[in-house]
Automatic annotation (TrEMBL):
Organism the protein comes from: Oceanobacillus piezotolerans
Classification via InterPro entries: Cys/Met-Metab_PyrdxlP-dep_enz, Cys_met_metab_PP, L-Met_gamma_lys, PyrdxlP-dep_Trfase, PyrdxlP-dep_Trfase_major, PyrdxlP-dep_Trfase_small
Family: Belongs to the trans-sulfuration enzymes family. L-methionine gamma-lyase subfamily.
Requisite cofactors: pyridoxal 5'-phosphate
GO CC terms of this entry: cytoplasm
Keywords: Lyase, Pyridoxal phosphate
Position of the signal peptide: none
Name of the featured protein: L-methionine gamma-lyase
Upper classification of the organism: Bacteria, Bacillati, Bacillota, Bacilli, Bacillales
Record-linked PROSITE patterns: CYS_MET_METAB_PP
Alphabetized CDD domains for the sequence: CGS_like (cd00614)
Gene3D superfamilies: Aspartate Aminotransferase, domain 1, Type I PLP-dependent aspartate aminotransferase-like (Major domain)
Amino acid sequence: MQKPSRFETKVIHEGYNARDMLGSLTPPLFQTSTYVFDSAEQGEKRFKGEEEGYIYSRLGNPTVEILEEKIAALEKGERGLAFASGMAAVSAILLFLTKTQDHIICSAGLYGCTFGLLSMMKEKYGISVDFSNMRTEEEVRSLIKPETSVIYIETPINPTMQLIDLEKVVKVAKEAAIPVVVDNTFSTPYLQRPLEIGCDVVIHSATKYIGGHGDVIAGLLVGNKKLIEEVAMTTRKDIGGIISPFDAWLLLRGLKSLHVRMDRHCDNAEKLVEKLKNHPKIKHVYYPHEEQNPNFEIGKKQMARGGGMISFEMIGTKSDVQQFLNRLSLIKIAVSLGDAETLIEHPATMTHAVVPEKERQSMGITDQLVRLSVGLEAWEDIWEDLKQALEK
Ligand SMILES: *Cc1c(COP(=O)(O)O)cnc(C)c1O
């Protein structure tokens, strides 16, 4: 039989063969720190790279490698790499691709801690950053300098749900031979595959939709074999943000239902967008596949569906917004996303509090902006909770 190519089948079967593991249906958990050599000579050969085999779990672990193979297949990349957190993956790739005095072009809006990391890199290593909406090829081209070493993109952007046209960016980046790194956390490979468009590296906070059950913090990288193997043997090995085998095992368990969960997240989000849009207390709803969204065309082009994240701007003061959050009961106030439970947060005072006020305003993160991670509950129950909290 040919290797199955449909996403829904690959997400379950890819990267694992029960025959290799004594027939165990699910991947075994290799909860070990190190591996025993048959002889001193074998140890020498493994360290020299003359013989394949495991040495120490910071360098490689069978459970982790099943996960890495699966995510690589889903993102249509050659090689995957797992980390202790999304931020461990982000810092490993950014520190790998840059040196002092380099320059980074970055989407105008991104995860708060990634912003924090870029600020630290600027202060400590003189690496400058230009934030841009990358609306046109000219806009991207005009920002490129001889020392530009990365174009770093989030799309949809957290938390404003703005989109960046990856095809346009890739075209310019290829001319200048600059790698494009995309944080694909919000979309997952089920909805968006940046490597197919020509981007070079995909990042995930696997804490979110990949794990999907709010029980693990982890990160993933996918890209070409040469690049990812170099990251494995440098910034991952030596900085050491390594995933625990148990967390890799939890992600393998979560991943099996990714496609089913994502469709339900999207179904629920689409219903809620319609309701929120028509509520008088709501000024604006941001969702990739919403027709009035100025990025609608980009959304249709590069995302199969709109995803499970919605942000909206309320009418009122910061205190009104906080009181609205406090009145919710089914929906939990929490900063993660992509879980079965619907979660809500206030970016300006929570996830993006590290971003200075001026930048925050220019990114569109106002005091009135609320971010909703739509869960897997009945959408009617989610809406009833939102409605009572808006109207009380
Ligand atoms: C959560 C998140 C991260 C960071 O991931 P951790 O697993 O929390 O370290 C990075 N990017 C995006 C878009 C995120 O949502």
